[in-house]
């Protein structure tokens, strides 16, 4: 009986050894790293892949720990992931690194499964790794590309904002230049009064309003007497000072609604809104008196002016007709000896 039991045990041991051998052959043939550790996390098995990976001596590793077998740069992280797997008590996944014999760094996704005996006590750890280097490199390349794209987007955003600011600034400058050009095109640069163009445009508006509202306006033309002699005697610079001073006198003694302008070299015109002929003559005489009383510039220039005055009449077809009659009155003032005001009305 005992002999039969012994033979049975031998047969079972033989089958178990055969089964273990098959299992080991299977693990040895797996192309991924496989390892087993005991309850103290000491190595009891490593397949050829992991042994070759870490250059572990296949005849001298059983019973040793990670820090005795693995390079220092990897040992601590592997032991830490072992401890975390044991603490979790179930299958866990970690990422670990290793260098191949050529020194190339590889990344592994490692699954670790803790095992327990029948009493529930921890009895060991089985681990299987998968080389994810290509995936890791692709992921890192993608992340680098994404980072570069984000940086490019930020740079493009900054560039767009800079360009937008520059365009906005340049647009503002162009608008300012346009306004300045428009202003200059309507302002006599020497005297600051309306130039001929501006004076005529604004006076045309007054003329149209007068015809639509059946109201009136007056026009006067002032011409400085013997102004050529000022230029010939004192020079053109002194003549410019005289023109500016006379323009200032005219501007200061008019209402905000009146339109004044320099329409010739030493000739000024004024359109007086809602003004009768008598009122216009008084204003013209006042201006002539102030100009005659002025002592202008360092040369103490004194001069007079002649003035022609008229008022709007519905019989006139255009503003130019009114201005022409004022010019005729000015001519008569010149012919009368200058330094006087002459008025004329439409017949």
Main attributes of the structure:
Beta-Lactamase; alpha+beta; 10 strands; rod-shaped; Alpha-Beta Plaits; 347 residues; 10 helices; 5-stranded antiparallel β-sheet; single chain; 5-stranded mixed β-sheet
Strand percentage, roughly?
15-25%
Number of strands: 10
Number of helices: 10
User: What is the distance, rounded to the nearest whole angstrom, between the alpha carbons of the first and last residues?
Assistant: 163 Å
- The level of helicity is 40-55%
Counting structural domains, the number is 3
Q: From the 3D structure, determine the CATH topology of the largest domain.
A: Alpha-Beta Plaits
Give the low-pLDDT segments: none
- Can you write the helix and strand succession as a string? HEEHHHEEEHHEHHEEHEHE
- Helix- and strand-based class? alpha+beta
Average of pLDDT? 88
**Which overall shape is indicated by the principal axes computed on the Cα atoms?**
rod-shaped
**What is Rg?**
54 Å
The largest sheet has its strands arranged as 2-1-5-4-3
> Biggest sheet, open or closed, and with what strands and sense?
5 strands, antiparallel
What is the name of the CATH architecture of the largest domain? 2-Layer Sandwich
